[in-house]
Here is the input.
Amino acid sequence: MLLFALDADKTLANALAADLDEMLASHEDRAFADGEHKLRPLVDPRGDDCYVLASLHGDALASPQDKLVALLSFAATLRDHDARRVTALVPYLAYARKDRRTKPFDPVTLRYVAQWCEASGVDRLVVLEAHNPAALDNAFRCPVVHLPAHPLFEAPATAGPLVVVSPDIGGAKRAQLWREHLQARLGREIGFALVDKRRSAGVVSGGHLVAGDVAGATALLLDDLVASGETLLRAAQALRRAGAREVLAHAAHGLFIPPAAELLADAAIARLVVTDSVPPQRLPADGPVARKLQVVSAARLFAQAVRACHDAWQG
Here is the structure.
């Protein structure tokens, strides 16, 4: 097994390597003056199962497009030099939200990303909390392992009522799965609610009506990602108006696009929990959001997926 990490931030990669008891394999990323890059492994991949960790979020060094091209190029290079199999480990999958046509002449970018991955020789994809798991499965012809993030999120130690809440109807299944997980783990009844939200042409409306009883309860709000924070804030404010004692917000991916640092500082959100799929680099380290932010590692989930893939192939 060879484990490569293309991300500049090695926090998740180092945790994954430690969990697997593997060393990170070295590679070269050479930047040319015109902005082009050359990526090559510095170990011989011939005959090996190669796992490539690459989170496709934008940061100060590279755009999602840059990171996607780097992943595709590196996977193709590994296959070109006789890697046995290539598995892409993608904590955050860029373009996964565009999985259907909603306007005339719309792209279906998730499907295009799938075609590019397959053309580059990716044999298997492991993704953390995709926006739409069914669309993800339908887009790819190679095997896809979808890792729900909710097993990473702990329930607060409280004797009071707990209610799992989806901020919109599209995330209801995700929230229901977490509710079932918590009920089995805690051995107690967990409520369910959802908040009305609609989006058209990028404009969010609704977000005021709560379906479900949250009065006096701790509301566990769950979404796949936080971008500007508007969806989570609208939902949290609606839950507080409906009588929730406090709102603890959870999301797999913290993109924190401005004005997230201002919106999420609102007192309606008592705590915010995200995974390390995206480093919280856009939040001021000493700001009010950082003080109520908790980052949990997804390394355990990816390590379990890698072991399962490796065992299946070895068997």
